[in-house]
């Protein structure tokens, strides 16, 4: 922190970075350090400029042009945006994405929290390690591979899921051939693969709650679920905020699962925002429209992130 | 400053694993709440691992028997026909080679470039350091789907379309890796550089021979994260590769499933199982590092 830095170094510490106390450089070494730093930074900074920053700007600019790569781009003002907003497929896919995010994230966070609380209570260490590894495991698989085998498991006639349901006397569910069934499968497969990440975050949050808090609560007579309602949930709210922001941002970008499981169908029932970007750019060669959709999606992501942090000031309880 | 390994939450939480005196009886007695809790957790674990076990066991059946109910989750009589079959139907050597090449080079590139940038942000002084670091962090929030159209054009302009380099180069600069490595280097004392310079080491040598070796655990986390992410990646390869000879494994498997329809699922699943092997190795040997990396910077 700047408080530990000698005053004459102040100009160089402009941003007040937390840096361990450094030796006093001579004028010469300071000069060479400045050059040296840029050499160290070159691969990352040049790469990011080329493959991230320029593309961001280009994406925004492109959203105002009509371009099919073959002919020269023409400036069309806000036409791409107004066309995109009126396009029924785009509308449906944004709506699908929002419904998907709400249901999948609520499911994922609820499941992860419940499992994390159960795992963190008293049990033999080996059993806890087993559960943690099991819930973490799907995260290391590829979403494409997972969707491949899940498609077989949810097969209407021969699928294992319907076989288990038939044991309970439930008639075969047309999972992948009806709009509702497809949406349910995409959500289930997505949550199956991703709840482990939220679970890990909650485990970390739970581990940081001091055990004395629970002792105090038990002296006050709180037991069982009341203890969790009044102690765990409030103290866990910073973790819940981080977990929900990350879950929402990643769910908004869902692509692999619906692409492999359903190709967006039947009809447009499981088409998502990113699938529409992909299709308008690389199947219909409407790069301007694809960029416009991308810009809209980014704005939504930024708005949600900002809203969540604003809300957090009211609802998140910091110890 | 905490090092990245301190971020982790894997391992046991000593406080909670001591047990909450509220719910647990001191003496070992059968407890219904304990049984219910472990029972529910076992169901959740079965639902998590079941599909993977079914995939493994189905891949070890002959293609003609692959659709079989009741399902089996353990391969009692393994039959490797499907594995032979998948090698015939799919140029799996090439797919594995492509995936390994792409993933390996990205991982190494990220480790080196992130270590260098992280070191500069942690231990070197230059104008605009704070601002530049903020920009690097901000790029983490931009989803890859939004930049993919310009990246695609850029790759075309560079004459790299439909090459493996098209997948590798854009993935090497890593904001998250740079962040992790900066954290790691800030945990190493600046006095090391002082001592090295007194011994006459050049700044590059100080980094190469003093700091980089000490930062290997941090670099390992960056490498494992990169490996896991890019080995499984589907969206970018789908867009940036065109001919089958440049496909990576996930892409090849999805196209295999498309070609075969629902005919011989054991063959497709054999391919899926093969593609999981590297991930399994990471899971067995680098789970802790992976968990630490994934959750680094999410609080604390």
Concise account of the structure shown:
Chain A is an all-alpha fold and 319 residues long. Chain A has twelve helices and two strands.
The fraction of residues assigned to DSSP E strands of chain A is under 5%
Encode the helix/strand succession of chain B as letters: HHHHHHHHHHHHHHH
Class from helix and strand fractions of chain A: mainly alpha
Structural class of chain B: mainly alpha
Number of strands of chain B: 0
Give the count of helical stretches of chain B: 15
Widest sheet: strand ordering of chain A: 1-2
Which stretches of chain B are low in confidence, meaning pLDDT under 50 for 5 or more residues running? 1-22
Assembly classification: heterodimer
Q: What average pLDDT do the residues of chain A reach?
A: 83
Q: What is the rounded Rg of chain B? A: 24 Å
Average pLDDT confidence of chain B is 81
For the largest beta-sheet of chain B, the strand count, sense and barrel status come to:
none
How does the major sheet of chain A shape up? 2 strands, antiparallel
Explained architecture:
The complex is a heterodimer of chains A (319) and B (300). Chain A is mainly alpha-helical and 319 residues long. Chain A has helices at 27-62, 79-86, 88-120, 125-136, 143-153, 160-167, 179-207, 211-219, 224-252, 256-261, 273-282, 287-315; strands at 65-66, 74-75. In chain A, strands 1-2 form a two-stranded antiparallel sheet. The longest helix of chain A is centred in the first third of the chain and has 36 residues, at 27-62. Chain A is globular, with a radius of gyration of 25 Å. With 300 residues, chain B is mostly helical. At the A-B interface, helix 1, helix 3, helix 4, helix 5 and helix 7 of A face helix 2, helix 3, helix 5, helix 6 and helix 7 of B.
